[in-house]
Specification:
Layout: E1 5-10, E2 15-20, E3 25-30, H1 33-46, E4 54-59, H2 66-74, E5 78-82, H3 84-90, H4 99-112, H5 125-157, H6 164-194, H7 196-206, H8 213-222, H9 232-238, E6 243-248, E7 252-258, H10 264-280, H11 282-293, H12 298-319
Parallel strand pairs: 1-4, 4-5
Antiparallel strand pairs: 1-2, 2-3, 6-7
Length: 331
């Protein structure tokens, strides 16, 4: 699709700043449904092409940018959501910071890449709900871990009868957090059970030894039902699993390693899957022990196992049939 006009938007909590690239025209509007309507009228009154030929670009800012994305999708306006780091690195050395300047930079970035980008499409309502619930669950689990750690230390060094309130409050908080985590788990399972397509993919992913419910839901929601990534190699790069070389000329020759630019939560879950597979999957256990006996690095071996698990996850999802463990039948 050929875009004749590009608009950059710097999204804020209360107000957003727009900038039309060719006209060098800024516009400020409220980050509310009423403000979005004002933006639409302003754009239609200034651009000299049809709205189908307009591309809107803005940074991903979580809940602040989500309503704007919904509005643009509902009004059928083409848009892209770009990580702030990608915009920053694409424009070279920049000095100063200002909302108008930021929106101008976003517009410039999108204009330069207008022939390469693919307009963004929001995930389905179910996938958005799953992501939000998983995020909430992660926060609850971290809070519970904090209270459990503190309570453990208190029990070790303090006398309970002299600190009844201190112990009682923490125990109640842990109990309440357990209750809320259970509610979140039940709601996640309800979403899966009520959507036949998600449930099918979910069961396929769970057929792989070492992959648990949380990992399955994270992968399914992030990939939008395995539609956003072409293959497991692309996803491995996104999750920080794929290794990259560090060499240049004759003076720089670093070891091949993974990048820190990754989805850290996804990487953590996949690492847990690999550790579980090494313990309970005979095939992975044998592979792990063989490499360690050969003197291979532990983390490097686990990283390979993660990639094997990812390959199987994408394979069963694309194929539509459960994973079949043939290791026990191999001669």
């Amino acid at each position: 699709m050929e875009f004749k006009e590009v608009i950059g938007i710097d999204v804020g909590k209360m107000t957003n700043q727009a900038f039309i690239h060719s006209l060098k025209l800024p516009f400020s509007f409220d980050n509310t449904p009423k403000g979005y309507k004002t933006l639409s009228k302003w754009v239609e009154g200034h651009v000299k092409c049809s709205m189908d030929e307009v591309l809107v670009a803005f940074e991903h800012t979580g809940i602040y940018s989500f309503p704007l994305a919904v509005h643009l999708q509902e009004t059928k306006v083409n848009y892209i959501i770009v990580p702030g780091l990608e915009i920053k690195r694409s424009l070279g050395i920049q000095r100063g910071k200002d909302d108008i300047v930021d929106s101008k930079r976003i517009a410039l970035y999108a204009y330069r890449r207008r022939d390469e980008v693919t307009p963004y499409q929001l995930p389905s309502k179910q996938f958005i709900q799953i992501r939000r619930l998983l995020s909430l669950r992660e926060r609850l689990v971290k809070q519970r871990a904090g209270y459990e750690g503190t309570l453990k230390e208190n029990k070790r060094f303090l006398i309970k009868k002299d600190n009844l309130l201190l112990f009682n409050i923490q125990e109640k908080m842990i109990k309440e957090l357990n209750k809320q985590i259970k509610r979140v788990n039940e709601e996640l399972q309800k979403i899966v059970d009520n959507d036949p397509e998600i449930k099918k993919i979910y069961n396929l992913v769970l057929s792989i030894k070492g992959v648990g419910p949380q990992t399955a839901l994270f992968v399914i929601s992030i990939t939008n039902g395995f539609t956003l990534f072409q293959n497991h190699r692309k996803f491995a790069s996104y999750a920080g699993i794929a290794p990259f070389s560090y060499r240049s000329g004759i003076s720089i020759s670093g070891r091949t390693k993974t990048s820190h630019l990754a989805n850290k939560k996804m990487k953590s879950l996949l690492s847990s899957c690999a550790s579980s597979a090494v313990q309970y999957n005979p095939e992975m256990k044998a592979y792990y022990q063989k490499r360690i006996a050969e003197g291979k690095h532990v983390m490097g071996t686990l990283n390979i196992i993660i990639k094997k698990i990812l390959a199987r996850i994408f394979a069963v999802a694309k194929r539509g049939t459960p994973y079949v463990d043939t290791y026990g039948y191999a001669s």
